[in-house]
Amino acid sequence: MLPDRDGQVRIRANVAGEVEIRAQKGQVIAPGQILAIIEGDQEIESLSVRKASEVLEIMVEDGCEVPEGTTLLVVREIEE
To answer: Mean pLDDT across the stretch 34-44?
Structure first.
């Protein structure tokens, strides 16, 4: 997950499954803090950030089913 020229990162699902969103719009997320969990048929994926980031947008509803590759959240890395 690399930031674009505006420092924004699109967090995408790497597996298909049910999404649990653990962040809120405007929230500052610490490195390693879980943003979302996807529970698929055969695996569970936890998504986090490598750098401190602010949640700009949540693209899906908590509890919905998503296909692989779906953009779940948009965050902006915070300069430290």
So the answer is: 94
